[in-house]
Amino acid sequence: MTAPSRDRVSSRRKALVVCTHLRPSRDKRRSNYYMQPITGLHIGSLIDPGRFDVRLHHEDWHGPFEPRDCGGYDIVFLTGLQPDFDRMRQLAYFFRSAGAIVVGGGSICSNFPEFATRFFDVVCAGGVDTVPEVVEGFLRGSLKPIYRSAAAKISSYRVDYGLFLRSGISPMLHLIESSRGCSFKCSFCVMPNEVGAHATYSLDHFADALESTLAASARWSFRRWYPLVMLLDNNFSDDAAHMLRVAKLLGSHPKVRGWAALVTQNILHDRELIVHLARSNCILLFAGVESLDREMLARYNKKQNLGRRYNVIEDIAFAESQGIAICYGYMFDQRHQTAAEMERQIDALARNPLMPMPVYLSLVAPLAGTASFWDDLRMGHLAPNLRLRDLDGETIGHKQLADDRDAVVDFIERMFRRPWTVVSRMRILVKTLRRIVRAGSFNPVRWYVIASANFHCFIWSSATPTRPRTYLAGTDMLDPQYFERPDDLTEEDRVRYFDPVVLTDAQGGPVEWLKPYVPTNVRHTVHPIVADVEGATR
Question: Phi-psi category of 160—alpha, beta or left, where left has phi over 0 and alpha has psi -120 to 50?
Answer without folding.
Answer: beta
